[in-house]
Write a structure and sequence with these properties.
Blueprint (H helix, E strand, L loop, with lengths): L7 E12 L5 E20 L11 E9 L11 E4 L2 E10 L6 E9 L2
Antiparallel strand pairs: 1-2, 1-4, 2-3, 3-6, 4-5, 5-6
Amino acid sequence: MRNGFCNLAVLVQSATRSRDEYGHDELTWVTKYSTLWVSVRTRARAAAYADGTAQVDGVTFTTPYHEGHDLERGDRVVWDGVNYEVQTVMDRNGQRAFIDLEAVQVAA
């Protein structure tokens, strides 16, 4: 890979569940990595809008492999203030060089 390939900083969060005083489940997002350097590939919906725009709802974040990364399905990546839920975590080529996080846009 070329130098500077992963040049965007994103935030990675993981969900924790707890119960409130009434016994209801509460979901809280806790920062797992405050800065993870990634490159981004977007996937747009097949349908485009009349004004020429497309809604981006799928993203692949690629980051260098580091021993001890605990990135997993269900984590949340925050990129430019938009939340993406990680659907899959893959070793790009089986050589532990890069990890691909396939994610979809979710509500805040």
